Amino acid sequence: MAGGAEAAGHTGEPAARRRSVRHTFAMDDEPRRSVISVMLIVADAAAAVAWYKSALGATDLWDLSGVAGLEIDGAPFFLHEADPRKATEFVDEATSLAERGMTALLTAYRLPPHGDQRAWADAVRAAVLTQRRGLDVLTAWADRLCYFGHSGGAALGAILSAVEPRLFALALASYGSGTLKRIAAASLPQNDPVADAYVEFLHRFEPASYVAVPGARRLLFQHRSDDEIVYLSEGLRLFDAAAEPKEWREYPCGHDTSTPPQARADRVRLFAATPQ
Description:
- By secondary structure, the chain is α/β, with parallel strands linked by helices.
- It folds into two domains: 15-35 and 85-272, Rossmann fold (3-Layer(aba) Sandwich), CATH 3.40.50; 44-81, no CATH class.
- 40% of the residues lie in helices and 18% in strands.
- It contains ten helices and eight strands.
- The chain has helices at residues 15-24, 45-56, 91-99, 117-138, 152-163, 179-187, 193-201, 207-211, 232-241, 261-272, and strands spanning 38-42, 59-63, 67-72, 75-81, 145-150, 167-173, 218-224, 246-251.
- A four-stranded mixed β-sheet has the order 1-4-3-2, covered by helices on one side. Strands 5-6-7-8 form a four-stranded parallel β-sheet, with helices on both faces.
- Helix 4 crosses helix 5 (152-163) and helix 6 packs antiparallel against helix 7.
- The longest helix has 22 residues, at 117-138.
- It is globular and about 50 Å long.
């Protein structure tokens, strides 16, 4: 799993807060033996779920409208609806990392539209646990685990930085403090009590509160100086909140900090760094 100057960093949050964060995104039965289950890529997840239920008697584990977990005779398996826009995203970088002797894993997850507190909370937790299960798989091949997340993937990486002690380094690209609530508010009705309550609820997923948790992991924050989607000021606030060790890098590349050669080179440098 591939996985961005110094500023005044937070010293971290109280131990009780760290325990609460780790409990929220804890795997239900850890520690546990790694289990690898099949994930099938399908064109229509809803239709596939219906077919497996009617034809093979599958039962629901969970369903996030595009990504679903099912079970047949106690054996879990997963369905993921293909997104043509993202089918090959990051594949070339993963290939480049593999050519350098690294093992790369591209995980799949989906977050729902804004507005439903329960649906969002369940989806974020499922997405974080997907990353953690990916780390379980990678431990079979690697003794140093790193993470790269871009935009929404960086938001998940912020959570992982607080709850996943196995990670040596994380590169978090094109995300910031306050970004989630700002974008959600823009997509919901204005002056609506339900929408306002939902936006306030999102504070529990504020990435600054996670990267502030002290740890041995290294953090690389990557951003574009004039990103039109995630503002530079938001990215800098996230960096300022993060506990050391951390590094900030800017690139003239638009919101997509996943493709510029220098951004990629900086991630490789981070992942290949010798542990202190």
